[in-house]
Queue: 3 jobs
Job 1
Amino acid sequence: MSDFVIETPPVVGLPVDGNDAKFPVRRVYCIGRNYAAHAVEMGHDPDREPPFFFQKNPDNLDPSLEFPYPVHSEDVHHEAEIAVMLKSGGTDIPVESALDHVYGYALSLDMTRRDLQGVAKKMGRPWEIGKAFERSAPVGPIHPVEKVGHPSEGAITLHVNGELRQEGDLNQMIWKVPEMIAYLSDYFELAPGDVILSGTPSGVGPVSRGDTMKLAVDGLGEISVKVV
């Protein structure tokens, strides 16, 4: 007999490069405005203010590399990112040992219903209606640390239909990966399966049905995502 009164939801599992087993997702934390140029284009001061985070849902992460254009929006934007996958966690993690908790890295997109997010901002409401909708985070295969190390610099680019839209370097992150992990662990108990989306460079913009987005990061390869 089941221990639950309804059917248990499936665990979200993401593909790992070179491994038939999958990475199970527990939580998804997303840092906002983590590249100075993106902060400026969104109308904010690029100085190093304390980081802030919002969340997506585990099943928003989608490895199918197809992005269904969502309902109730006419202004859906791409945000090119890398995702950080944790193999362990805890609280009050020191910056110096934070990278010991990382399993690997993947290319990802934080797709955003910008019009709905804009309304939420004006009304002082949470962002989830603009950020945490179905399949809002296309994600590529996870590259384990043993294969790629800890990428801290290198080009990150996004092309839409062959046109360069976003271009930056991982070293332009205001808050680096170890700092994000340490900061989050001061407020949450991190655990295996947690995922951190690490922010996007400038150049975010709209997509339409039929578009193809190509995200590339030095050392992590590239992915192509079709808007359907």
Job 2
Amino acid sequence: MSKAPRKVIITCAVTGAIHTPTMSDALPYKAEDIARQAIEAAEAGAAVLHLHARHPQTGAVSIDQEHFRAFLPVIHASTDAVVNLSTGGSLTNTVAERTAPALRFSPEMCSLNMGSMNFAMHPLAQRYKTWKFDWEEPYLRESDGYIFRNTFRDIAQAAHALEPHGIKFEHECYDVGQLYNLKFCMDTGLFKAPVFIQFVLGILGGIGADLDNLAFMKRTADKLFGKDYQWSVLGAGASQMNLAVAAAAMGGHVRVGLEDSLFITRGKLAASNAQQVRKVRALLEDLGHEIATPDEARAILALKGRERVAFS
């Protein structure tokens, strides 16, 4: 087990592409709300902001560059937090479509999924009888037929497209096999050490959210990458805080946010992203961990710097 880092990076995933507006009034989808909640999360202690875009009228998932443009400059002007743009986008888009916003705005970081999978949210549809928008129910119910495509060709296409921008990837691994996919890509020269890995636990179609699986993912990553990686954990739903505390104790970083869980405690919806950040920060500090500032996160992850983004 690796030595715990002196500083723990908190990432906040502000809105994502799983939850829909019916599920929580706190879930931001208008540009001004995404910007406000991102800034508040940074003020609460998030060094990294993981961002998706939404359609401002309907809350539907969007990869429209204008929807990103509506909040990125505001966030950049108001906080020095690292911005990490999703290349996941919608499960039905091609990799070229999903990487287009990152090519336009050249952020310091981007997520990159390391394998294809059955990415399903359809059980969520059983919890609601009425919906704010017509798209929500079919979007969820039809996910039992989705394949989230991230082939080796797709991964290489994204990597080659974004390489000139000096973007650091957050390699999202939803199961242990995707760690081996990343190792293969590194062995063939596609990615260079050190890498940053996000263990994603608790998504239907991926590895389950429990401590044994977290330890297994960490042990496998140690075997494959040695000391040439940093890592974080995303625990979906009720596992969010428990896995975050465990990850910090094991030497990792943490991710919270309304993309991953809509709740602050079991059965109680979170009022905002910042509320989750404040909670995980308090838990970690009570256990003696120090929280990384954005500039400390940049140093830990070897990022290019906020002056090299193109958010205007």
Job 3
Amino acid sequence: MRIAQIAPLFEAVPPKLYGGTERVVSWLTEELVSMGHEVTLFASGDSMTAAKLEPVWPQAIRLDPAIRDWIAAYAVLMEYVAQRAHQFDVLHFHVDYFPLSLFSRLGVPFMTTLHGRLDLPEFKAVYETFPNAPFVSISDSQRLPLPRQNWVGTVLHGLPPQLLTPPAARTGEDYLAFLGRVSPEKGVDRAIRIAARAGMKLKIAAKVDKVDQEYFDAEIKPLLATGQVEFIGEINDAQKPAFLGNARALLFPIRWPEPFGLVMIEAMACGTPVIAFRHGSVPEVMDDGVSGFIVDDEDQAVAALGRLDSIDRAGVRAQFERRFTARRMAEDYVALYRRLSRRPDLSLVEAEAAD
């Protein structure tokens, strides 16, 4: 198939450091190429891909200090793709609501994977303006705020099986890991308290966005001195196998409706069990008692740390291989592409009935 992948412009594809959506777009794009599809990636010019790259903006917006109005770059992206839209069997967008007005009128097969939270009032207003636009969710729980949208499928994320692997021999260092972003909803404060109560060291590999700097300075910095806490900062994919693979467990103590939670499957790829709070996608991603434990509060999280020896780390990796590879993700998307490209004016259920 001739497939267009339209990525966000905030980070390169793949991102140099933090960047969940761009990382998933990269894994999907490369897997589609390996499956023999003709793939074009619309992304920033500093992206790297085996697909044909259409560099819509010179470099990732987050790395460009000259950018003051990032929406201007997205206006360029939409027009750039629109001019080439009829060259493809399907257009796959990863840029929220930006394509909806224009591409709903072009008569070309397109779909949008929504990667973020959908429980804000303004999202309800904008998405319900386009009731027939086809959307893909990254978990069933992500859909709950917008049940009336034209959801054509749920595709759980996947990553290349050899990207992150368990270490050949663990270092024996006894610590817990927190990976991701420092913000109130990610629960790094909870992670610090859980580790302290368990008497264990906590290593934090996390990004601090500008919007969260005040929170980090006021709420998290004081906690860093209260126990055995090591703040590492952002890390890249090459650093993750050692960071995750040598940890006793990954703490995922979120307090928001997480749409997916990529760090959970990154830990699983390294054979590391996850202790995750029961919010959003967690019950869909985690197999309680197999890939880790699902808990409801800090007390249960501390108790779960005492049961880690019951988790088989080889079994954690095996569960990743069964459920969360990039090939499985790509095959799921190709099935959607094929059905949607036959009848772009219909929902997938209607398209199947028409075949």
